[in-house]
Amino acid sequence: MKDLTDEEKELLSKLGQRIKELRIKKGYTNYEHFAYEHGISRTQYGSYETGENLKFLTLVKVLKGLDVSLSEFFSENF
Q1: φ, ψ for residue 77, nearest 5 deg
Q2: Which residues form a coiled coil (predicted)?
Q3: Which domains does the chain have, with CATH numbers?
Q4: Contacts of 27 (CB under 8 A, 6+ apart)
């Protein structure tokens, strides 16, 4: 994978923060429980919340587990 720009790193960080915020709002205080219940590798999911790059289809899977649409997810300022 290519080196990321500071702007790309910042966007990934915001994406991870948003995912974590929604997970907690949904009642999952532990990211591992959420990942397990939705068929996502716990290690991989944990890296998403810390700003690692993730694939679009994986984001869709996470949002489905959170009962959040793409438009709702991106309604927050990025």
Answers
A1: -65, 130
A2: none
A3: 6-63 (1.10.260.40)
A4: none
